[in-house]
Amino acid sequence: MSKKLPYLVLILLLQSHPVLSDGNLQPGIELFTQADYQQAIESDAGNEDNPEFLYYYGLSLYKTDQAKEALEAMSRAAEIEPQNPDYQYALTLIYLLRINEVNVFRKAGMFGKLKKAMATAADHEPTHLRGNMFYTGWLLYAPKMGGGDIEKGMVYLAKLKLVSEPDWVLMEAGLASRDEEYTRAEELYLKALEMKRSPSSVINIARYYLAQKKYQQAISHANAFNLLPKHWAGPGNCDGHLVLAQAYHYLGDDAAFEEHSKKAIDMTNNKAQKERFEASLNALGD
To answer: In the 8-state DSSP scheme, what is residue 234?
Structure first.
């Protein structure tokens, strides 16, 4: 689908296909959950008044780096059900992608909408784990001019413990690492991993060991991460291969470095992420 299609044309196209029309959402949802995002886009369509359709259609566009169209679809879903935390959380991530594509005059307004969606996802559903983790991390790590607020972040961090203690431990580990409390950070990363072997806990300890120059441990956890099932909003195998490429570079294994560098770049559809990966890997040779 052309990235230049106006919203009205997008809606007309959505109405012209049967796969995700009312009462027939499952085939398109299955394609999405199988990470066959392009096929989902090509075969999916439905009703512009059906927020569930718009949600999955928007996510499929997002996962194939079509931020403009994804934002149109997800904004419509959130307009229909403004209190739905899934839609607001997805809208946050799409805004993050889209904001890199617009000119400087549009960035400020879009950034305000991003922050509103982020706060809505966390505040309207305190048990929405990903929304709360994202907002808490933003408050704790973003610069003040970007909406960071450590004091407020610590309040949300305390709330996170009530939602998911393993993820609270994982975030505490990140804070300890940031504050260069490395012994405590490793203990917390291992505790989080023991409590909940999630993709986030595994890739985070892999990254921690990479930063600590414990390359064999980083490789072990990155390989384990690549074997786990993934969530659409979480880190993907491209992130695991990036850790592997960096670790093998420092170990002097050029063949493994080239192999995993190629996989890391090839596995992401996100142009901005691809550029970050390429810059990070190219910098290793400087």
So the answer is: S
Give the separation between CA 190 and CA 170, rounded to whole angstroms.
9
Residue 53 pLDDT more than 80?
A: yes
- Measured CA to CA, the distance from residue 238 to residue 269 in angstroms comes to 10
Round to whole Å and give the CA distance between 45 and 25. 9
Report the C-alpha gap between 34 and 101 in whole angstroms: 28
pLDDT in tens, 195-233: 999 999 999 999 999 999 999 999 999 999 999 998 888
CA dihedral in degrees (171, 175, 180, 182; nearest 10)? Answer: -20
pTM above 0.90, yes or no: no
Distance of CA 131 to the CA centre of its chain: 11
- CA 24/CA 245 separation, integer angstroms: 43
Of 5-9, 242-246, 281-285, which one has max mean pLDDT?
242-246
* CB-based contact 253:218 (threshold 8 Å): no
